[in-house]
Amino acid sequence: MIDKIKEQISEVNAFTADSLDAIETFRIKYLGKKGILNDFFAEFKNVPNEQKKEFGQTINELKQAATLKVETLKEVLENSQSTEQVYGDLTRPGNPIVLGSRHPISIVKNQIIDIFSRIGFNVSEGPEIEDDWHNFTALNLPEYHPARDMQDTFFVQTNPDILLRTHTSSVQVRYMENNKPPIRTISPGRVYRNEAISARSHCFFHQVEGLYIDKDVSFADLKQTLQYFTTELFGKSKIRLRPSYFPFTEPSAEVDVYWGLETEADYRITKGTGWLEIGGCGMVDPNVLTNCGIDPNKYSGFAFGVGIDRIAMLLHQITDIRLMSENDVRFLEQFKSAL
Ligand code: DAH
């Protein structure tokens, strides 16, 4: 029996192979579960006691020889293979990396942030689930104020004090409560209104609120700032401030940009007038300043609010606001090149 094992040892030592398959077959033949080595181990109990030691040692020799053979053959094979055999063709094109694209709302929001940061405005944010104080009362819209009806509000049913903010003006209040003048901040964010959904309006959309509070801020500063904004964003510097009413500003105005009437699209966009409304603005009402802990005798300021969705639709020729929230990749992919 021992001679048989020794025979196997010489066979193992003499073995050569030039492929991984052949080495694997060899490994299984000797070291596998049903391999030669285990067959010999199974014989162990039948070997007379005085031979057991030598038998055991010889089997171990066989095992070591086989293991070493597998290892060395593999190593030799690996060293002899070219990088191409080991790694494949390194010049072949890689798997394409699919890059996402920014949402048009984000693109326009970032443009607006960029424009205002150049004149010293920072960015502030507030919660979308708001309380009555920040969305209405502090903004000079006390309970039962008729102007509350202008904004169809989603209330949280269990608590009439909690609602989905109807405008980003709520962030004005929060910012003034927590910061001292001079204040120069813009607050982009999503707002909600209980409105019928159509191609032109949705029950949620996006606004940017602007707020500037300091000593001696005037209406002229407001107009200059808005003019700078429209020039930077649209390349259009002619604006018009139409008297209007908002409870939180006095005086208040609607902001129109002169879009022109050069193309048929201009006629459509401006309803034949050449003018396009982009938002509201005004001088912050002294009551609002007081509500937020700022002395209206010392400070004054202006505020404005513009809709991001409308602007994004305008700049990117999007004809239906619902596309903004449908997550259709065929729509989203069209904004690949924009930042
Ligand atoms: N909050 C107003 C709205 O959603 C927009 C607005 C108008 C904001 C005038 C202002 C402002 O800050 O001064 O309709």
Automatic annotation (TrEMBL):
GO biological process: phenylalanyl-tRNA aminoacylation
Aminoacyl-transfer RNA synthetases class-II family profile domain segment(s): 108-334
Keywords of this entry: Aminoacyl-tRNA synthetase, ATP-binding, Cytoplasm, Ligase, Magnesium, Metal-binding, Nucleotide-binding, Protein biosynthesis
Catalytic activity: tRNA(Phe) + L-phenylalanine + ATP = L-phenylalanyl-tRNA(Phe) + AMP + diphosphate + H(+)
PROSITE patterns in UniProt: AA_TRNA_LIGASE_II
One annotated GO molecular function: tRNA binding
CC terms in the record's Gene Ontology section: cytoplasm
Cofactor section: Mg(2+)
Subcellular localization(s) per the UniProt record: Cytoplasm
One Pfam family linked to the record: tRNA-synt_2d
Binding-site residues for Mg(2+), renumbered to this chain: 250
Free-text comment on the cofactor: Binds 2 magnesium ions per tetramer.
Record InterPro entries: aa-tRNA-synth_II (IPR006195), aa-tRNA-synth_II/BPL/LPL (IPR045864), Phe-tRNA-synth_IIc_asu (IPR004529), Phe-tRNA_ligase_II_N (IPR004188), Phe_tRNA_ligase_alpha1_bac (IPR022911), Phenylalanyl-tRNA_Synthase (IPR002319), tRNA-bd_arm (IPR010978)
Entry's family note: Belongs to the class-II aminoacyl-tRNA synthetase family. Phe-tRNA synthetase alpha subunit type 1 subfamily.
Assembly and binders: Tetramer of two alpha and two beta subunits.
The name this protein goes by in its record: Phenylalanine--tRNA ligase alpha subunit
Name of the coding gene: pheS
